[in-house]
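Thread: Newbie trying to understand structure tokens

Hi all, I'm a second-year student working on a class project, and my supervisor (Dr. K.) asked me to get a predicted structure for one chain before our next meeting. I've only ever worked with sequences, so writing a 3D structure as a token string is new to me. If someone could post the tokens and maybe explain what I'm looking at, I'd be very grateful. Here's the chain:
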Amino acid sequence: MDSGNTAWMLMACALVLFMTPGLAFFYGGLVRNRNVLSTIMLSFMAMAVVSIVWVLWGYSLAFGDGNELIGDFSVLGLEGLAGDDLLFATFQMMFAIITPALITGAIVERFKFTTYLIFLVLWITLVYAPICHWVWAGNGWIFDMGALDFAGGTVVHINAGVAAIAAAQLVGKRRNPAPEPHDVLGAAILWFGWFGFNAGSGLAANEQAVSAFIVTNIAAATAALTWGLLSHIQTGRMSAIGVATGAVAGLVAITPASGFVGVMGALGVGFGAGILCYFAVLLRAKTNLDDALDVAAVHGMGGLWGALATGIFAVEAIGGTAGLIEGNAEIMGTQAIAVLATIGYSLVVTAIILKVLDLIPGLGLRAAETSEDQGLDLAMHGERGYVSDGAD
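---
Reply by user tm_fold:
Sure, no problem. This is what the structure looks like when written as tokens:
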């Protein structure tokens, strides 16, 4: 183990884990006061449940030898892993934790907590682990095809964004959708943690990590500014929530590209994310889908654009693969196949998992109407994040 690389990767692990509390605060700041703690709990329980699942069998299914579709049970309990291998398993654990937590933005304020805990176990096992194996394991079929996903455009963001569509559709609309955002600090924490997410994915403290670090910041800044300007053009005001959401969209989009594109490519990735995700949010608002915090529009669309933009802007001198601009048109077909496979598998299997859970007596997806009206903080956890004189 190289001490410099090990130190950086341990820091990257901590940064990526810190993103999940950041997500909890970001999502918690976008819901009504009476649902703040319940929303935060969804992310915190992902930290607890997924950590255990990953150690016991999740990592083995994702990175065990297996075949091109799924790993095997050769490293159950992380048996036999040490040094760099154990460090890699730890780093990948942090990615597994945040991915299902992202989905929760679509189902806040009405999803049953006990059912969510079971969903976490099933989703990591049946959806996340297989897709992770396809894309990142050395013998995964998407990996062998040559698709580019440096830090999780397909594995994390498209996967979570598509699963969010299935979850929001099956759980149904909130009885009284009334967003009352009151805090965007979580977005700043996400931005900070994302440097470990992307720059750590090269698994070394080297030139590629430096490049991934700077392009991550550039894409986030570009998308935040683009979103803010679009908001100002449309409404005459620059929304704080919009700028924060735009930054997250830029971070999402640069994730698969961060180890493959240069500074100018990052500007293109961020600009495209700001535009596409902004209009995706507007389009979603015109549908009957109550994706409460626009997970599909930000993570799904941002991940999709990022995966395709990686094929457009990839620079051979940075990541070893040329993109469309450098004359490699074939990579676009490869990227499209990876995107479509992720969308199809995640949507279908997530829907099956949720439908089965909804049919099991005593479980179900939806909290009781009285719980929803009272607020899930009190109804499910017996606590409140805020005390006020009003209904919230």
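A couple of things are worth pointing out once you decode it. The mean pLDDT is 96. The chain is about 70% helix and 0% strand. Feel free to ask follow-ups in this thread.
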